[in-house]
Amino acid sequence: MDIIAEVRRRHFVSGESISSIARSLKISRPPVRKHLSTEVESVYNRKHQPELKLGSFWPLLEQWLEVDIKLPNAALHSAYLKRYLMKVIPVPRQYSAICKTMEN
Q1: What pLDDT digit, counting tens, does each position of 41-76 carry?
Q2: So where are the chain's domains?
Q3: How many Å from the N-terminal Cα to the C-terminal Cα in the chain?
Q4: Opening angle at CA 36, ends 31 and 38, nearest 5
Q5: What is the C-alpha separation between 98 and 60, in angstroms, rounded?
Q6: Nearest 5 degrees, angle CA 68-CA 57-CA 97?
Q7: DSSP state of 56
């Protein structure tokens, strides 16, 4: 939220116009006006932790990793293994997101 302080400083201290602030920070004028009218920075508090996007795929990931851990180190997380697992285990459309999770 440093942008709020930057907008307020430029306008109130330096006397810069809203248009020039918007142009230099590459944001539109309405957010600049909004930042000028705010007194306190907004704070976001999450009340509910949503389910992870991969939440429904965790069983599939666990199954893949169980196969993966039994392989020698040279074959771990290899493209060959991923292709093999795609043939053996049905893969959902979100395969790229699953691969990213496996790599981490």
Answers
A1: 778 787 876 766 667 777 877 887 777 777 776 565
A2: 2-37, 55-103
A3: 29
A4: 95
A5: 9
A6: 80
A7: G
